Amino acid sequence: MHPDHTPQRAVEVHRPTPIPAPVTHPAPVVPVQPGTVPTVASIVLPDGRVVTGYAIDPARPEPVAAKLAVSRAAVNVALGGVGFLAVCGGLLLLTSFIAALTAFIGQLIILAAVIFGGWIAVQVLSGSGHQGGTTVNIRRAVIKRNHFHG
């Protein structure tokens, strides 16, 4: 539709209501009198001028609680204990390693014996390639089932 043919509607305009800022009352400043009247100090500068003012004590930090002294003997005993535990742990690991290495070598020996024993058994039980019978070599002659082959 063309804008000329649209019916006119009433347009409502909404304007937000501002929220008033809270009223803050500044705290009254109360002058605090020092407990004692500070002394006035005067300093004469090298060029002859005199500077006068109040001496201000520097802020002192709160005293730190005194550390308890640790004797050298106690430190040495503690370090010796730590060293002793380290050596004991190292020896325990070393003995465990040696035991594991010994077991591994034993297993290798057993494996070699089984393989070699199996090879020997195959050689003994397979025969020398002949089909049955016993073969005996005597001075280049072969005797097989009471037959002489020269």
Please explain how this structure is put together.
The chain is an alpha+beta fold and 150 residues long. It is 37% helix and 14% strand. The chain is built from 1 helix and 5 strands. The longest helix is centred in the middle third of the chain and has 55 residues. It is flat, with a radius of gyration of 56 Å. The chain starts with 39 loop residues before the first strand and ends with a strand. 0% of the residues are buried. The mean pLDDT is 78.
Question: How would you summarize this macromolecular structure in one to three sentences?
Answer:
By secondary structure, the chain is an alpha+beta fold.
Question: Could you say which overall geometry the principal axes of the C-alpha atoms support?
Answer: flat
Structural class: alpha+beta
**Alpha-carbon distance between the termini?**
129 Å
Average pLDDT: 78
* Helix fraction by DSSP (H/I, runs of at least 4): 25-40%
The radius of gyration computed from the alpha-carbon positions, rounded to a whole number of angstroms, is: 56 Å
Low-confidence runs: none
- Percent of residues in beta strands? 5-15%
Largest sheet: 3 strands, antiparallel
By DSSP, the count of extended strands is: 5
State the strand order across the main sheet: 3-4-5
The number of helical runs is 1
Succession of helices and strands: EEHEEE
